Amino acid sequence: MHCSQCASGEIFILTQAVMQNGIMNTSSIHLSWHNSILTMLFSKWFNQSPPLASVVIQRGKEVVADFELEISNTIFRRSRGLMGRSSLGHSNGMLFIYPWPRIVRIWMAGTPLPLDVIFVDKTGQIIKIEPNMKPFSRKVVSSGCSVKWVMELAGGEAGRCGLGAGDFVHIALIRS
Fold it and tell me: d(Cα 100, Cα 28) in Å, to the nearest integer?
């Protein structure tokens, strides 16, 4: 789908383009820029409750901590993160899920509360914890190596629970 604004102020959404006998045939929809159709089209993505995961942290056979985290598994959700949140419960936070392992860089621009950032590799092992990241900071923190998941918890929560590199993360979907 391609979306662009026409000179008349309308939104033009190209929904289909097909080559027939060397000629481009298109199906399209024109929407008035100022009506509520755009809200209806995109409300599914912006107003829906986020998916939730139950996350259990283990050291050997011992359960060290458990959390209920919002899942951030789309580009939009990952780019927004916890920006603008003014509070976060002790057992809540966000779980960023990436489609494949990669080096992840995080900053706190737009985030008004301190966060602990926990980097988890593809095996589920915590490889790095960045504690108490400063609110609104533009300092970029890197995972340093490829990770599959990143958890953001309220600042100080990782220390309070005794989380450390080498602990293992187990994730179960609560709500999709």
Answer: 34
Residue 92, C-beta contacts closer than 8 angstroms, at least 6 positions apart: 67, 68, 69, 70, 154
Tell me the C-alpha distance between 121 and 153, whole Å: 17
Which domains are delineated in the chain? 2-46 (no CATH), 52-175 (2.60.120.1140)
Show the DSSP H helices in the chain as ranges: 37-46, 75-80, 157-161
pTM of the complete model: 0.72
The answer to whether the CB of 12 falls within 8 A of the CB of 36 is: no
Give per-residue pLDDT as tens, 56-90: 999 999 999 999 999 998 888 888 888 888 888 88
Cα–Cα distance, 85 to 81 (Å, whole number): 9
